[in-house]
Amino acid sequence: MSGFHKLTIKDIKRETKKAISISFELPNNLKDDFKFKAGQYITLKTEINGKEVRRDYSLCSSPKSGELKVAVKEVKDGTFSSYANNTLKAGDVLDVATPKGRFTFTPNDSKTKNIAAFAAGSGITPVLSIIKCALEEEVHSKVILVYGNKTTKDTMFLNELLALQHQYKERFTIQFVFSQEDENDSIFGRIEKSTVNYIIKNEYKHIEVDAFFLCGPEAMIHTVKDVLTEHNIDADTIHYELFKASKPTEIKEEEEEEEVSVTNGQTKITVIVDDEETTFEMSQKQTLLEAALDKHLDAPYSCQGGICSSCLARIKEGEATMRQNNILTDSEIAEGLTLTCQAHPTTDKIVIDFDDV
């Protein structure tokens, strides 16, 4: 189910003082397995200090490039990001899962489009893949990028973006936003309401945007979405992916007690994964994913924070409630989809299917 393959690191490039890009060698027999859509991510798995660690990283290469490449920004106390930035080297081998993700762009050269992207920090990685794909495969479409960082030195893929802007100067424009540096032709500050208003109502008011792609911290995503909504932008044209979400609200003790009085706090769960069914009893204080992993089932997962959608499953019977949801739409939830890392069962019996997603 997890689809992991051992891949050798072909090259590691220092992108900023705190970020690297990693490209992998891809054997011919795995090229079909690793075909991807612009915007998708791969899960990297390894052991660090004797403990298995999984992390998701968006592909920053274009689908046509034939390159499997991600970027890793080192964060404070980040187990894998620190390991990758300071220890990994070309020739090392990592377990890599096949591409996944719902934040995608599918090119259509028969239709000319205007695309606007808002990215902050390492949120540029899937957006970069989308930009490359649009420029390469939709030869008449135009792309606007609004990209926020602290300084130019902190800006991932700065030179690559400037090269793309030069190569596609009639079709690709960039508005840099720096919060700690005042640069010519850039906006000083953060991507906030005034920034979005300036882009869509002043600088590019003559352009009708067909699709928006947003990637970065949760606060930035909500700010941009809210402003676009205020300007009556169709919600179906706004696509986003969080790179860091706020912490989920803790379940209140009194709510747990109420569930216990109804169902005695236990659920009989059936997990379907890789066409195999496993049934057992679980505590409603556990998430569906935690229960499955405790039984050593090969359920897919990565971030366990409700951001990546790796743990997506369909509820075939019974009900569950999610502590946090930053991905699924109301209609998808109504169809039975759930993020198992966030979902607690609320019925005596539940059946979840990881294969039917």
From TrEMBL:
Keywords: 2Fe-2S, FAD, Flavoprotein, Iron, Iron-sulfur, Metal-binding, Oxidoreductase. Pfam families: FAD_binding_6, Fer2, NAD_binding_1. InterPro entries: 2Fe-2S_ferredoxin-like_sf, 2Fe-2S_ferredoxin-type, 2Fe2S_fd_BS, Beta-grasp_dom_sf, Cbr1-like_FAD-bd_dom, FAD-bd_FR_type, FNR_nucleotide-bd, MRET. Its cofactor is FAD. Residues 267-357 form the 2Fe-2S ferredoxin-type domain. It comes from the Bacteria. Residues 2-106 form the FAD-binding FR-type domain. SUPFAM superfamilies: 2Fe-2S ferredoxin-like (SSF54292), Ferredoxin reductase-like, C-terminal NADP-linked domain (SSF52343), Riboflavin synthase domain-like (SSF63380). CDD domains: fer2, PA_degradation_oxidoreductase_like. This is Ferredoxin--NADP reductase. It comes from Postechiella marina.
